[in-house]
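Morning F.,

Quick status update on the modeling queue. The single chain you submitted on Monday has been processed. Sequence for confirmation:
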Amino acid sequence: MIEQTLQRVFGYGDFRPGQRPVIEAITAGRSAAAIFPTGSGKSLCYQLPALHLPHLTLVISPLLALMQDQLAFLARHGIAAASIDSGQSREEAAAVMEGVKRGEIRILMVSVERLKNERFRAFIRRVPISLLVVDEAHCISEWGHNFRPDYLKLPQYRHEFGIPQVLLLTATATPRVIADMRERFDIAESDVTATGFYRPNLNLEVAPVPAEMRPRRLVEWLRPRLGDAPPQPTIVYVTLQQTAERLAAYLTKAGLAATAYHAGLDGETRERIQHDFMAGHTACIVATIAFGMGIDKADIRNVVHFDLPKSVENYSQEIGRAGRDGQPSDCLMLAGRDHVNVLENFVYGDTPEPHGIRRVLDEMTLAAGATRQWQLVLNSLSQYSNIRPLPLKTLLVQLELRGIIAPRYSYFAEYRFRLHDEPEALVARFEGERGAFVQAVLDASQRARTWFSLDFAALERLGEERGLNVDRARVLTALDYFVAQGWMVLESKQMTEVYEVLRDDIDPAALTEELHAYFRDKERAEVERLHAMLALFESASCLSRRLAEWFGDERAPEQCGHCSACRGQVARLPAPAPLAPLEESDAGQLADELVQQLASSDEAHPVTPDLLARFLCGLSGPLLTRLKARRLAGFGTLEAYRYAEVREWLNRR
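Structure tokens below.
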């Protein structure tokens, strides 16, 4: 049966390694996990079973680019699939939801954040779902390299929507992460399929080059690869956006046409660059890690790391984009230790200060009051606590895991709509109680020219007065129906998350200390992972073997014969140029403007070593952004130093 579908729909004569056991587990009604290297055919593991399952397959995908690439593939094969994403209009999303309701769409792709949308959750509860697919499933584990707190809620959503089966997909999961994934989704060990991480067609080279010589060495290495006709498709990875711009200009000036790609470019430009690369019009992309996810180009011949990757997992994922057609491909690392402090500082910038953690706990306690309900807007709380949104999400998850709070629901605080006809025309479409309900919705909405703003509190009062059911779920369903019929345009904003406070016996000082210790442990673990990566690259043993072992794969050969270590070129990463001792700097003078700015503002944040260290190392955050710290003379003056050393120096003062 599955063989016939493979041939008839997808045009493949046989399965790739690992695909059959995963697909058989899903079609037999069991949950499963597929840990396959990048480009090894993970997507087929849900695309084929979706055609045999009775109901919808719901796919959680982390990036819009990934969704678009897979949707294009499914469309080419005549499979009804769609996404709901932030780039769509309300009408486009409504059309997709209508197609799902009618059973015309077999596969629906959304981001994990979409599941926080109360209107989407109200819709999806009414749709029977056969399979939940979690792409990039390593994001669910705090021990993974791209932990995303929202992923931790997926088991809860699975229960809420009554989804019988789950399929987890990832290319980069260590044994510890795999165990975490299995436990959270109750997947049998026998239904985890890992095909191994060894790629015999990838030539891995670690070439220690001092920072000042790196651009010239890159030109020398690329010239024969880009100078031929046609030039070989190539990705050069860098860490910072400004490096991407400068290096692309340097290569172009040297006669090697290159294009910069990073998150600072607008969406239309990024899409055009990606399209040109896929079509072969652009041969060389100099990119931050924003480029690559969703790039299904089989003939990428070269992947270069001009800067150190963020982790072993990132390195594996990025080189995995080379040679998907099985042909020999080169992966070069022009490595050095000069960039270590930049990667470390990314880690330190995400660690909340005790002051910020305490502010969150005080808000929770204060807001709970007699109702035991805590309503928060993440961005507002981020500003108030001076904690970046991602670590703030992690903090909230930690409060959940400690049994202190429990998520109940999320809703948009503000809804506004514009009618295509007069209000009377909308009411006239309904009779009896339904007409009275629509009239109440309009009466509870304040009109400003063409837009109406719905006041739920006013609607609740009108409902009581008029004896109407104005339950929020009914109102949202009605609004969605009006949009689907083309009677109105609807906008929503101010996502509000509602938690129940389960405990009121916490010691805020002790809990603040405990949570700060958790984040500091996480900080240390991330820095250790970075240095473990450096040790791997400097190893005298086979790099391919060491890489496979990192992911628990013992099947790689002891000596691959196609890495720099096997060729006897053991890497010794050059240290950065020595810096003047920190003691020679005048911290008071460097940070004086910031201290004055803070004193003259109405901010209640104390002057702490962490705040000063972030300022001097050029790490921004909510508070420093509000204070316009980038404009101050001292901002980033010590960015060449390791954050930990700067913080320790400030602590000694």
